[in-house]
Specification:
Blueprint lengths: L1 H18 L3 H27 L16 H10 L1 H31 L6 H15 L3 H8 L1 H21 L5 H37 L4 H29 L10 H27 L5 H16 L1
Helix pairs in contact: 1-2, 1-5, 4-8, 4-9, 4-10, 5-8, 6-7, 7-8, 7-10, 8-9, 8-11
GO biological process, one term: carbohydrate transport
Keywords: Membrane, Transmembrane, Transmembrane helix
Pfam family, one: MFS_2
Length: 295
């Protein structure tokens, strides 16, 4: 449902900006509106989950030990590999998001294509999501994540080599990318419980909150650094908004839009090669943990 709402917002972004007066004023009002809606949505979610967020007040609380928790995280090799794979994907995709508008405005001179291409990417992703559980059972999460990263590279390389390709090719490649790239971007969260079970199986300790917050942190960190990298590299080649760009700037925009995600997926391929938990391995882990529980 998050993807569906993202799909709607993407389609409505530019029309809303124009409706609010266009330019700086339009974007400012649009940003404020999204901020208000997001805040309201978070409050509604918190209100709806409040009755489920309970704790046993009589249970003895174990004090937090940051050093001990970090040591447990560092020892969990599958979790570290997942964080690297997930984080590099997020970082690389954050850079392309940061320059997406620049690509259409300065490289293609077709700002009108922004909502159309974004819609193709998101709609293809929506089609993939219901198929993900079945694909995970068929191929295994590790293998599916690896191949999802591998095949996400292909449409990006095509557009990197031919950034001014005809609209039909652009739309087709971005739809394929939207479909395939949803595999690793969503599968990472589904692999998180495996890493938590691995930690309990290997070290006798569960750390669900630590694992979840670590993946959330690497997600936010990658988004922030990706945006910084895009701004920094564009500044190095002399980018100035709202004027004709030099070939160096145009090449940098194309690299950030298509080349950086390729590098991110390559990093994912390498880290996933060292991810130990296959379907067979996880079945063994779960069986042993269940036996310990009965004991």
């Amino acid at each position: 449902m998050g993807t569906v709402s993202q799909f709607i917002i993407t389609i409505m972004a530019l029309p809303l900006v124009e409706a609010f007066g266009g330019g700086k004023q339009g974007w400012a009002v649009y940003g404020a509106l999204i901020g208000i809606l997001t805040t309201a949505a978070f409050w509604i979610c918190a209100w709806g989950g409040k009755k489920y967020d309970v704790c046993d007040m009589d249970k003895e609380r174990v004090p937090m030990n940051m050093a001990k928790d970090l040591k447990l995280l560092i020892k969990n090799k599958p979790m570290l590999m997942l964080m690297i794979a997930f984080g590099t994907d997020v970082l690389a995709n954050a850079t392309y998001s940061a320059v997406n508008m620049y690509y259409f405005k300065y490289v293609l001179n077709r700002v009108d294509l922004v909502p159309k291409v974004a819609s193709a990417i998101l709609f293809a992703g929506i089609i993939l999501l219901p198929l993900l559980p079945a694909l995970s059972r068929l191929f295994g999460k590790k293998r599916l994540y690896w191949f999802g990263s591998l095949f996400s590279i292909i449409p990006l390389v095509v557009m990197w080599l031919k950034p001014t390709a005809p609209v039909t090719i652009l739309m087709s490649m971005m739809a394929v990318f939207g479909f395939i790239s949803r595999i690793p971007s969503n599968l990472g969260w589904a692999m998180l419980p495996e890493c938590s079970d691995y930690g309990e199986w290997k070290f006798g300790q569960r750390a669900d909150g630590l694992m979840s917050s670590s993946l959330t942190f690497i997600n936010k960190f990658g988004m922030a650094i990706g945006g910084f990298i895009a701004s920094f590299l564009l500044g190095l080649v002399g980018f100035v908004a709202n004027q004709e760009q030099t070939p160096q700037v145009l090449n940098m925009i194309v690299f950030l839009r298509f080349g950086m995600p390729v590098l991110g997926y390559i990093a994912s391929l390498i880290s996933m090669a060292f991810y130990e938990i296959t379907n067979e391995k996880y079945a063994e882990i779960r069986t042993e943990l269940d036996e310990r529980g009965k004991g």
